[in-house]
Specification:
Length: 681
């Protein structure tokens, strides 16, 4: 970087703050937008309070020192239609640069000044008939910037990089470029920064976005092909009707969506290569039953099944649920979570090693060294969005080409499915079990807390149960725990005196968590005051009220997950969001929650308000490292790139051809990046 003209150590440090470490980064430090400075406004027609361009002659330049010690440079300017002024603050060197009679371009905000108008701190560039202007008179890039680095400076550095760096390899084979009408890399980089017009910019963006998506899809499709070429590790003994008996014993009928999902999975399990499937279904759509059916088929076939959950509480709950459902069918279920001590783990570890058919349910603890499966057939990962791709492959490596089912309640738009999870087959649970009435959501100010808790009291008296979620403190788990403990104490000694209140948080031992979940489920606790440890998966149908304190601190997806803990039984469920939002966006988010219970709409809104990187927890690198392509809106381009990638791989599955050498290297880099990126999420 420092070898570029105008970039010394100081600027290199500033650029690093923008995530720009290499010339490549710099060239892909894309403008947030372009300002249209092509059409100068005649001075007589300047409008106030907006930004405009003008071409003017400098009439006079004065430097004024204000009483406050500021240096003001003020120029009188004119064109054929009228006169105006331009002022700059604390840029005394300008007075030396601007000469009387000189023709310059101005761009900036115009304000009223006395009886005339003036440009306030406009960008100024001399009109030089021999040189192309970069800051005026054209579409001018506006970059994500950082303090100490002006737009002008950034433009100059990037322009130099464009001029001097011939070293960026063209990755797209010519045949692909021709087939898809894509311009060359060099041209595209110029035009994405300094386009002549809108069409040039669009062509550049399309080319660069296509390249990103194409490389990503090649990687994803190659991974997928590699997996499909792998013979499956587990060869299950023929089915003997266990899944059928399980389904018949359920207290409800499966939804059509669940039935379809189970069919697809059972077909996969009999297929020639390992299953690699994503089960997507909104909160409460009944994914656990589908997982249980898959695990049963695996056990019946003579193998071990593992279910991994992101939190200890959820793992414990799954353990209890599966144990309850599967024990009557003669299938053993073992727990394995971080909070268990060595003595408690020993029987599970021993069982895992022996290779006896059955199911183990746990957390990340399943990934530890000491967990050595003798016969892992199927690995299920619940709430996949809480894990990374890395954990998925680590669990897979616990077996010999086992089947993998990942489940998520985060409704991911199709574009993201293809980019982030493009190596997976996808099953959608697109319907909720019948008879659910949507949760009614209320937004209340803090001043209404007494009324809210009086209502909770009433409902408890009528036999209902409630969750109360304490305010989010992201910085520190121990503070968060304290906040839950204090809230529980406050409620138990005040508005909920006499009600059976208990607290639930991450610092309890596994046994304590299990006891309290069981007590809550059994109705021995009325109100569970909790941290976000209850966010995912918890399923207690009699709980019909959820109160969330300081709800505006939570993201939409999180609120949706939390709210999904209620509305699982027959009783009408209510969710009360307590908040005094200070920003317009805060109000909007609460309004979205009030207005809809549709997870897909909430996710769309969340993506819109916070951006995909933030939502998926990969904010440092953007989604899947995409810088140009937009993972939400570029679906058509993505599909085109995916088709092109499929076609190329059909001809050259290993990307060995001479004309794709650069491309193959780019795909390898991208796959590495993807693995690293996944560990961030
Ligand atoms: P999620 O998809 O959020 O993981 P769960 O698997 O926890 O959902 O299921 C939510 C609740 O719905 C559970 O209490 C479960 O027993 C119940 N359930 C699942 N399938 C059905 C069904 N077909 N009919 C009625 N209730 C169901
Ligand atoms: Mg679940």
């Amino acid at each position: 970087m420092q070898y570029l003209r105008g970039v010394g150590p100081g600027r290199a440090a500033l650029l690093a703050r923008l995530g720009v470490e290499t010339v490549g980064d710099l060239l892909l430090h894309l403008p947030r937008r372009h300002e249209d400075r092509r059409h100068p406004t005649p001075l007589a027609r300047l409008a106030v309070d907006c930004e405009q361009a003008a071409i003017v002659r400098i009439e006079d330049v004065r430097t004024i020192r204000t009483r406050r010690g500021m240096v003001l440079v003020r120029a009188g300017v004119a064109d054929a239609t009228g006169v105006a002024h331009a002022v700059w603050f604390n840029q005394p060197y300008l007075s030396g640069r601007l000469r009387r009679g000189q023709l310059v371009s101005l761009y900036g905000r115009v304000e009223r000044a006395g009886r005339g108008v003036q440009f306030v701190a406009p960008e100024v560039e001399p009109l030089d008939p021999d040189a192309e202007p970069w800051n005026v008179g054209r579409l001018v890039p506006v970059y994500p910037a950082t303090e100490g680095l002006t737009q002008r400076a950034l433009r100059a550095i990037i322009r130099d990089a464009l001029e001097t760096s011939s070293g960026i390899p063209e990755v797209l084979p010519e045949a692909v470029r021709e087939a898809h009408g894509l311009i060359g890399l060099r041209e595209a980089l110029w035009a994405v920064h300094f386009p002549d017009d809108e069409a040039a910019y669009a062509a550049a963006r399309r080319r660069l976005g296509f390249e990103e998506l194409f490389v990503l899809q090649l990687g994803v499709l190659q991974q997928r092909a590699a997996l499909e070429a792998t013979p499956r590790g587990a060869r299950y003994a023929p089915a003997g009707g266990l899944v059928g008996r399980f389904v018949a014993a359920l207290p409800f009928a499966l939804t059509d969506a669940q039935r379809r999902a189970i069919d697809e999975i059972l077909t996969d399990l009999d297929g020639p290569s390992p299953m690699n499937r994503l089960l997507q279904g909104d909160v409460g759509s009944g994914k656990t039953v589908v997982a249980a059916a898959a695990l049963l088929r695996c056990v019946e076939g003579g193998y071990q099944g593992a279910l991994m959950a992101p939190t200890e509480i959820l793992a414990v709950q799954h353990f209890l649920t599966l144990h309850r459902m599967l024990a009557p069918l003669g299938v053993t279920v073992h727990p394995l979570v971080g909070g268990m001590d060595a003595a408690a783990r020993a029987p599970t570890l021993e069982w895992v090693r022996r290779g006896e058919p059955g199911v183990v349910v746990g957390t990340h603890a399943l990934l530890e060294e000491g967990v050595a499966f003798e016969r892992l057939g199927l690995a299920v990962i619940d709430e996949q969005h809480r894990f990374g791709v890395v954990q998925r492959s680590r669990l897979r490596e616990k077996g010999r080409a086992p089947d993998v089912l990942v489940m998520t309640a985060t409704p991911i738009p199709r574009t993201l499915v293809l980019t982030v999870y493009g190596d997976l087959d996808v099953t959608l649970l697109d319907a909720l079990p019948p008879g659910r009435t949507p949760v009614v959501t209320h937004v209340r100010p803090k001043a209404a807390r007494p009324a809210v808790y009086a209502y909770v009291r009433e409902q408890v008296a009528a036999g209902r149960q409630a969750f109360v979620v304490c305010p989010l403190i992201e910085e520190s788990e121990s503070l968060q725990v304290r906040s839950a403990v204090e809230l529980a104490r406050e409620l138990a000694s005040g508005p909920l005196a006499g009600v059976r209140v208990e607290v639930m948080h991450g610092r309890l031992t596994a046994a304590q968590k299990a006891d309290r979940m069981e007590a809550f489920r059994a109705g021995r606790i009325d109100v569970l005051v909790a941290t976000t440890v209850i966010e995912v998966g918890i399923d207690v149908p009699n709980a019909s009220i959820m109160v969330i304190e300081d709800a505006d601190r939570y993201g939409l997806a999180q609120l949706h997950q939390l709210r999904g803990r209620v509305g699982r039984g027959a009783a009408k469920a209510h969710c009360v969001l307590i908040a005094d939002p200070v920003t317009e966006e805060g109000r909007r988010r609460l309004e979205v929650m009030r207005a809809t219970t549709d997870g897909f709409r909430i996710a769309q809104e969340d993506l819109r308000l916070r951006g995909p990187g933030e939502v998926l927890g990969v904010r440092q690198h953007g989604v899947a490292g995409l810088r140009v392509a937009d993972p939400i809106t570029d679906l058509p381009l993505l599909e085109e790139a995916r088709r092109a990638a499929t076609a190329l791989l059909r001809e050259d599955p290993e990307l060995r051809g001479g004309q794709v050498r650069e491309l193959a290297a780019a795909v390898r880099r991208r796959l590495q990046g993807r693995a690293e990126l996944a560990s961030v999420g």
